[in-house]
């Protein structure tokens, strides 16, 4: 048991012959009590400081543990965020690649479709151009045959004989000669046209010329096979 200053002060000693001086012993005890009280007070202060230091140490230890736990939680959260970000970036990249692939595929298909349609149109246009050239060539040949037959009629010597001054040919004779000439030339034109290749043959119909008062001197040539009628106007 630790002695207190009061225990020292109340301590009583027995007396014997030739013992210590009572006053000196009491004075010494008083001094011991004072020093011991000072030591006790100092120890108490030290204990209080130690308790405060222990409390602070405990607080800092708890704070350290809390900080460590927070750091761990933050690290885990950062790892999760990083993992989620990486997953999202991979998903975005895959979706972007898929979309780009779809766009390229769609553009390729559309381009191929446009090229096919353009090729078909070009082929169709080439066929139509060839057909137009054939129709134009047939028309040219028919027109040439008709003009040559008409020119042969005009260049015929029978005209000179009929129109010679002093000739006594009657109207019926002139009409018969002209009619026979036109019929012969028309037959020659038909025969000439028949000698052409089958693909280029087509009948030519020439409208007759009348002597009525409403006649304007027009010659109408009608071509079959959906060709439009050609009008040759020769105003007199």
Automatic annotation (TrEMBL):
Database matches in InterPro entries: DivIVA_domain, DivIVA_fam
Keywords, ordered alphabetically: Cell cycle, Cell division, Coiled coil, Cytoplasm
Record-given protein name: DivIVA domain-containing protein
Places the protein is found: Cytoplasm
Family, similarity comment: Belongs to the DivIVA family.
Stretches for region Disordered: 182-236
Stretches of the chain forming a coiled coil according to its record: 29-63
Top-level taxon of the source organism: Bacteria
NCBIfam families, A to Z: DivI1A_domain
UniProt main location, coarse: cytoplasm
Organism: Levilactobacillus angrenensis
């Amino acid at each position: 048991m630790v002695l207190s200053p009061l225990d020292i002060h109340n301590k009583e000693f027995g007396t014997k012959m030739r013992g210590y001086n009572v006053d000196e012993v009491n004075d010494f005890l008083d001094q011991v009590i004072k020093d011991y009280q000072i030591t006790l007070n100092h120890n108490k202060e030290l204990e209080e400081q130690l308790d405060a230091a222990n409390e602070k140490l405990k607080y800092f230890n708890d704070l350290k543990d809390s900080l460590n736990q927070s750091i761990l939680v933050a690290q885990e959260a950062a790892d999760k965020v990083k993992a989620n970000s990486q997953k999202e970036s991979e998903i975005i990249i895959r979706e972007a690649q898929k979309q780009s692939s779809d766009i390229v595929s769609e553009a390729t298909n559309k381009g191929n479709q446009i090229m096919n349609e353009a090729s078909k149109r070009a082929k169709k246009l080439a066929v139509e151009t060839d057909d137009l050239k054939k129709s134009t060539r047939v028309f040219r040949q028919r027109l040439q045959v008709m003009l040559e037959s008409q020119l042969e009629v005009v260049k015929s010597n029978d005209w000179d004989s009929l129109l010679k001054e002093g000739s006594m040919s009657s109207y019926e004779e002139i009409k018969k000669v002209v009619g026979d000439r036109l019929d012969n030339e028309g037959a020659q034109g038909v025969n000439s046209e028949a000698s052409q290749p089958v693909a280029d043959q087509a009948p030519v119909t020439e409208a007759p010329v009348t002597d009525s008062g409403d006649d304007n001197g027009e010659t109408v040539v009608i071509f079959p096979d959906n060709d439009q009628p050609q009008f040759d106007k020769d105003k007199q």
